[in-house]
Design a protein that fits this description.
heterodimer; A: 426 residues; alpha+beta; MgtE N-terminal fold; CBS-domain; four-stranded antiparallel sheet; 38% helix; 23% strand; disordered N terminus; B: 416 residues; mainly alpha; 79% helix
């Protein structure tokens, strides 16, 4: 995109034009006779991200296409004067993003404000590059000021509207931070629309945004952002039904990529919401390691400890030392952010102790982990009811709770955030 | 056999999962204005008007089905779609009208609260403010699923009309015959009443509410079959309730002496000779219907307006995040309840005005609906089939004719 400062450098005066003012502006030929009025204007994003490239002019019989380089001047009062009056008939070009048709009144994502907004008008800057006047899209306008301008356009003179609207505070989003939503993947490519900017958002914010969109637009976003961001955002979507319908709409390979990036317990929760056929298709596309984890978890009922737990934990042998623990943590760096307990098991894989991570700081490097264990080992079996599990968290003030199978072998871990989600859903 | 049973259970589960939007919308249709219209019909003409309920049900199903289909397929509310396809000016105009119409509707609902509780000797200066505050908190402090449960429960309370219908021991035989035998009389009061019954059945706000509720509930094309069934059952239930209201008033009031009643509470009093229970149930039903509609109307209005004009909306947002939404919602309740408390406020004139505005707005909305649902780039394979379009346009034309006639007659002679 053209830098704003550079643009200002060769513009004679910093002038603005609103899209609603451009609409129905007369277009004059070389002798000053009116050819027609402006019906719409379009960007060709593959050529330039902000420059108005084409003007659609309503001629006597048909619409005509006016290229930006055929224009000499653009003025609020006079209209558009041409330097080349050979206009071609308009045909719908797939590389065109028409402001009136594709942008006005549609929903876009405000990346900085992190919300979905509806476009009421578009502010363009009017510049002169020495040969001609050029319009650049500067901001999309939302809110009351642009609404006022649009409602009264054609009713009051343009200058009067400009004067009156000054009393209303403006509400606009810079064009670089406005993300157009386009469900059709082919069109997305032609119009050069990407959702890269959304990948940097906090997953919870992105989830709020997709919750505000219609299903087709939702799927468009999940389809095109990278699997990791998609997985993070998907687990932040609150409604399990919506999570399921998003996955269902994606191609199984893409869905599998996303599910692989999720923690196994969340993945299992979502897959269990899907129809059997769809979830099998997705599982089929998954790599074998995450697939086995998820499949194991899918065996358990939703409202039991087995259904709640995840299988991402760090486990060590009974007689391991602090050095072993450090080595184990280095090998599991991706878990560190949410890890707060280590577990010990004996030869038969029976759970023997839980060690709060913080205790490692106070221990000498040769001390045996067993000696750092929490006084009482609190654990539940996989078929323990969900209500009882949350009761344990409350009663013993737990952050993590190990889950064992019928033989006492460690099967998974429930963490406090799982419990918070349950309580919130009630 | 077991397989069949399982399939049956699965169907029920899907149905319960989509239960809500269609049922609630159809029930709120029997608001205090609707109850008055049906009571007046029964009190004055006995069982004669019953035949209209069948065609009314069909018309109701046709319009409601279109809304829920649009919601399920596009995932967008009706005002969103109107804005996206027809632009800001039309949307603004429609929304301004919608606010006006619904404001007058809210007034009638609070008037319903006042008159039903005055039957129990509770002053309106106590009942109306309490109801207004209760309604405000229910929605602002609740969440959608919770509120929907309260609404579904309120829908169940309509059963009081069925019981009171039985309690007055009406003449079931003539009720049955008149339900299927159309009788037209060239009596201006009779025609006015018939038009009134159709006119109160399909209100502009219902289309907006239903479609938004379908979207909010996350109903998609996949569960659309169940959703369509839900809408249909809801519409039928609504008219079953209407049937019992008419029958109750026919059996209790018309049989003794046909007369004009001045409001729905008047009808409840007419049931008194048939036992305290019939009276109690009828007035409890009226109270429930008024409070129910009073909680949905302002909410639905605020939603539609904010969605269409692009302001943030939703009870899940904080007041600071969605100021326009909350302001509009509060204003509708405060003004709607407030005017009922003003001594000598021309409430009857307001109700007439609301019918006239209704007559202006509804045709527009129905036309936009049929235009929208036939857009292939919006609805894909879910556009109206050709035969359905015939039915839809016929419905639109009939509704336009009737509502305009109703509005015209309201202007000329006042309520029937």
């Amino acid at each position: 995109m053209l830098e704003l400062s550079a643009a200002v450098a060769f513009s004679m005066a910093d002038k603005h034009l609103f899209f609603t003012e451009l609409l129905s502006m007369p277009v004059l030929d070389l002798k000053g006779r009116r050819i027609g009025r402006v019906k719409d204007a379009a960007l060709v994003p593959r050529e330039h991200a902000a420059r108005i490239d084409r003007f659609l002019v309503g001629g006597p019989e048909t619409w005509l296409t006016l290229r930006f380089d055929q224009i000499r001047t653009i003025g609020l009062d006079r209209g558009i004067e041409l330097s080349d009056e050979q206009l071609l008939p308009y045909h719908d070009d797939e590389y065109m993003m028409r402001i009136g048709r594709d942008l006005l009144d549609q929903q876009i994502i405000d990346v900085t404000g992190r919300k979905v907004v509806r476009v009421t008008d578009v502010t363009m800057s009017l510049q002169n590059d020495g040969q001609r006047d050029i319009l650049m899209v500067l901001e999309v306008d939302i809110g009351v000021r642009s609404m006022f301008r649009r409602l009264f356009q054609g009713v009051l003179p343009r200058r009067a509207i400009r004067r009156l609207q000054r009393r209303i505070p403006p509400n606009s989003i810079r064009w670089d931070f406005a993300n157009v939503v386009e469900p059709d993947p082919l069109r997305r490519l032609r119009l050069n629309i990407s959702y890269d900017k959304l990948e940097d958002m906090h997953p919870a914010d992105l989830a709020d945004i997709v919750e505000d969109l219609a299903p087709a637009e939702r799927e468009a976003i999940f389809d095109s952002i990278d699997s990791e961001s998609a997985a993070d955002a998907l687990s932040e979507v609150e409604d399990p039904k919506m999570q399921a319908s998003i996955l269902e709409a994606l191609e199984p390979e893409k869905a599998a990529d996303i599910v692989e990036e999720m923690s196994p317990d969340e993945a299992a929760d979502i897959l269990s919401e899907l129809e059997d056929k769809t979830s099998e298709e997705i599982l089929e596309e998954m790599d074998s390691e995450p697939k086995v984890d998820v499949q194991e978890l899918l065996e358990f009922e939703d409202d039991t400890a087995g259904g709640l737990m995840n299988t991402e934990y760090v486990v060590l042998h009974d007689n391991a030392t602090l050095a072993d623990a450090m080595a184990a943590l280095k090998g599991n760096e991706e878990l560190l952010e949410s890890l707060n307990t280590l577990f010990l098991i004996d030869e038969e894989e029976h759970l023997t102790a839980a060690i709060p991570l913080a205790r490692l700081f106070l221990a000498g490097s040769t001390s045996r982990l067993k000696d750092l264990a929490a006084e009482t080992l609190i654990q539940v079996t996989v078929d323990e009811k969900q209500d009882r599990v949350s009761e344990y968290f409350d009663k013993y003030n737990l952050l993590t709770l190990p889950v064992v199978d019928d033989e006492g072998k460690l099967a998974g871990v429930i963490t406090a955030d799982d419990i918070i989600s349950i309580l919130r859903q009630k | 056999m077991r397989k069949a049973l399982e399939r049956y259970r699965a169907h029920i589960l899907v149905f319960l999962a989509v239960l809500g939007p269609g049922f609630i919308t159809a029930m709120v249709d029997n608001d205090s204005g609707g109850i008055y219209t049906y009571s007046a019909a029964g009190a004055k003409y006995g069982y004669l008007p019953l035949w209209t309920l069948l065609p009314i049900t069909v018309v109701l199903i046709i319009t409601q089905e279109m809304c829920s289909r649009m919601g399920a397929v596009t995932g967008k509310g009706l005002s969103d779609l109107i804005r996206e396809e027809f632009g800001l000016r039309i949307t603004f105009f429609l929304m301004a009208l919608l606010v006006l119409v619904n404001l007058t509707n809210v007034m009638t609902e609070f008037a319903g609260v006042a008159s039903s509780l005055e039957l129990f000797h509770i002053s309106k200066y106590i009942s109306v403010p309490l109801a207004a505050i209760g309604v405000w908190f229910l929605v602002v402090k609740g969440n959608y699923t919770g509120v929907e449960k309260v609404f579904l429960f309120a829908s169940v309370i309509y059963v009081t009309y069925i019981i009171s219908g039985f309690l007055v021991r009406p003449d079931w035989k003539s009720a049955a015959i008149n339900s299927v035998r159309p009788i037209l009389m060239l009596d201006s009061g009779y025609i006015y009443m018939l038009i009134g019954m159709v006119g109160t059945t399909i209100a502009p706000w219902m289309q907006f509410y239903l479609q938004s509720a379908v979207v909010e509930k996350g109903i998609t094309v996949k569960d659309y079959a169940a959703s369509r069934l839900e809408v249909t059952v809801g519409c039928i239930m609504t008219n079953v309730i209407a049937f019992f209201i008419i029958v109750a008033c026919a059996g209790a009031i018309w049989r003794v002496a046909p007369k004009d009643i001045k409001d729905a509470a008047d009808a409840a009093v007419g049931l008194k000779p048939f036992g305290e229970y019939a009276f109690l149930l009828f007035s409890a039903g009226l109270l429930n219907a008024s409070v129910f509609a009073a909680s949905i109307l302002p909410l639905s209005t605020a939603y539609s307006v904010c969605e269409g004009l692009g302001f943030e909306a939703g009870v899940n947002r904080r007041m600071r995040e969605a100021p326009v939404f909350y302001a509009l919602y509060t204003l509708l309740i405060v003004v709607g309840a407030g005017v009922v408390l003003i001594p000598n406020f021309p409430l009857v004139k307001m109700i007439l005005l609301s019918q006239v505005l209704n007559g202006v707005l509804l045709p527009l909305i129905l036309i936009f609906m049929v235009l929208l649902i036939n857009k292939r780039d919006l609805m894909g394979e879910w556009v109206n089939p050709r035969w359905f379009n015939w039915a839809a346009w016929a419905t639109v034309v009939i509704m336009i004719g009737l509502t305009l006639a109703l509005a015209g007659m309201s202007l000329r002679q006042g309520p029937g």
